[in-house]
Structure formats: C-alpha cells, structure tokens
C-alpha cells in the first residue's frame, strides 16, 4: 500500500499533529515541548516524516553528527524512531518510511544509516528482525543493546566509549532525559510523584545539549534510567513500571 506522507518542517511544525501523542490529554504538554525541540533541529537536517492520517505512523532521523545519542561515526544518518501502530500495521507503511530514509541517505551521499535496537525485542526500540530484512547488521553492542547499521561503503559506526560504562557513582534513582519525546514530561511527573510519596531519592538530569548527549555514561535514545548505580534501561518509567524497578 502506498500512503500519502508529510514531512514536518519549520513552516508546518506548529499546525501538524505529531502522531506519537495524538489523543491522550496527559501527554499534550509534551507535544509543545517536542515542537520546540524539532524546530531547533531542522537546520541540522533533522527529518520527521509521517503518514497524512490520524495514526502513529512515522519515522524520525538525523545526521549522526548532530543526533543526540552517544553514538559515533562519520557521515551516517541515525534513526531515532520508526513507529507503525494499531490498525496501520501490516500495510507496508514501515517499509515505505524506511525506504524513504534509505533513498534520502543515498541522495545526501551518506555512508549509511544506523539505529539502536536490541538482541531481544524491547519497548521503545526498533525491531531487529524488521531492520535485518533491509540489510542492517549488528556493528556494536552493549549487553542486550545493539547498534544496527546499513553501510553503503563498508564503514561502521559505534557506541561512544563513555556509553559502555553503564554505571554511575550514585545510588539514587537517576534519570537522564531529553525533550524530543512528548511522553517524557508526563513520565517525569509520575516519577516525581511516586518518589515523593515513597521517600525514594531521585536525581533528574536533563540532556539539553548535543555535547551532553554524546558523552552520556550509558545507552540513550531520549531517556535512560539508573538505580543503585546500575543502568536500568531506556524504558520510559510510569508509576507502575517504576514500582517494578524498585522492587527488583
């Protein structure tokens, strides 16, 4: 199935819906935050392409040099998110969006495309099996997390050395977070409320610059949590998931 797509740009970012947070009212404050973050990224070559429909069908990517992730490598594109959900699954939209990204990378003369995934399927990460179908291969790994790449010239990106630490010298629940995902403000609110109610020490660290993102001590794709000094994952935390983490 061939769909009609729209690229979010500086001209339409204020009016087009951002389909990863369409109807849920509690996430609407985060949509405004994301619009501002996107507007600042467009001059850097950032792309947000979505189906022209009321659905969660989109791809978001950027030049690796300006992608807010602890990944290094020259002349690549980095895919933050490729999401097709609900009734839109199984209709070829994921393939079309990925093929657009591949064609765009080649047109820009890029060396390839990379994306964060995992050895076993995890929420908020690209499906490894889907990416492998299009020629992506694992090029680096940290524990269960993998960096997949589609290389056009044989070069390979990698996780930054700092990201391989996966530990910090702090026992508190510590969350590194960005402003790219519209779900994050509500997650932060839920975490703060839960920690206050349960007397859990909390440290929130905003990742508000490219330099900070490139030198994080862990895997990161908008969000990363530590507990008792150990990396706990990139799963967004609400009250329910946080309770499970604390009780482990």
Q: Report the order of strands and helices.
A: EHEEEEHEHEEEEHEHEEH
Overall average residue pLDDT:
92
Question: How far is the N terminus from the C terminus?
Answer: 44 Å
Give the % helix. Answer: 25-40%
Shape: globular
The percent range for strand residues is 25-35%
Q: Biggest β-sheet, characterized? A: 7 strands, mixed
Number of helices: 6
Question: Any guess at the CATH architecture of the largest domain?
Answer: 3-Layer(aba) Sandwich
Q: How many structural domains in the coordinates?
A: 2
Order of strands in the sheet with most strands: 1-2-3-5-6-8-7
- Per CATH, the class of the largest domain reads Alpha Beta
Question: Which regions are unreliable across 5 or more consecutive residues at pLDDT < 50?
Answer: none
Q: Give the CATH H-level superfamily of the largest domain.
A: Gcn5-related N-acetyltransferase (GNAT)
Structural class: alpha+beta
Question: Could you characterize what this model shows?
Answer:
This protein is α+β, with helices and mostly antiparallel strands and 248 residues long. The protein folds into two domains: 5-160, 3-Layer(aba) Sandwich (Aminopeptidase); 163-247, 3-Layer(aba) Sandwich (Glutaredoxin), CATH 3.40.30. The protein has six helices and 13 strands. The protein has helices at residues 28-41, 93-107, 128-133, 184-197, 210-214, 239-247; strands at residues 5-7, 47-51, 57-63, 71-72, 76-84, 112-118, 137-142, 145-151, 158-159, 173-177, 202-206, 223-227, 230-233. A seven-stranded mixed sheet has the order 1-2-3-5-6-8-7. A four-stranded mixed sheet has the order 11-10-12-13, covered by helices on one side. A two-stranded antiparallel sheet has the order 4-9. The protein is globular and about 50 Å long. The N and C termini lie far apart (44 Å). 39% of the residues are buried. The mean pLDDT is 92.
């Amino acid at each position: 199935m061939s769909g009609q797509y729209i690229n979010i740009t500086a001209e339409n970012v204020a009016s087009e819906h951002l389909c990863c947070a369409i109807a849920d009212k509690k996430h609407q404050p985060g949509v405004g935050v994301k619009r501002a973050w996107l507007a600042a990224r467009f001059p850097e070559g950032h792309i947000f392409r979505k189906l022209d429909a009321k659905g969660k069908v989109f791809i978001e990517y950027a030049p690796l040099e300006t992608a807010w992730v602890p990944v290094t490598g020259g002349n690549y594109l980095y895919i933050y998110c490729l999401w097709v959900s609900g009734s839109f699954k199984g209709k070829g939209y994921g393939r079309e969006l990925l093929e657009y990204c591949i064609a765009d990378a080649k047109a820009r003369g890029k060396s390839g495309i990379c994306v964060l995934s995992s050895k076993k399927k995890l929420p908020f990460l690209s499906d490894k099996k889907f990416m492998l179908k299009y020629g992506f291969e694992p090029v680096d790994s940290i524990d269960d997390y993998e960096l997949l790449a589609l290389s056009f010239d044989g070069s390979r990106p990698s996780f930054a050395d700092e990201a391989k630490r996966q530990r910090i010298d702090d026992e508190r629940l510590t969350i590194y977070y960005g402003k790219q995902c519209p779900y994050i403000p509500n997650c932060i609110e839920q975490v703060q409320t839960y920690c206050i109610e349960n007397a859990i020490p909390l440290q929130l660290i905003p990742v508000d610059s490219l330099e900070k993102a490139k030198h994080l001590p862990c895997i990161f794709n908008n969000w990363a949590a530590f507990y008792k000094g150990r990396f706990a994952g990139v799963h967004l935390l609400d009250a329910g998931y946080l309770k499970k983490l604390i009780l482990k």
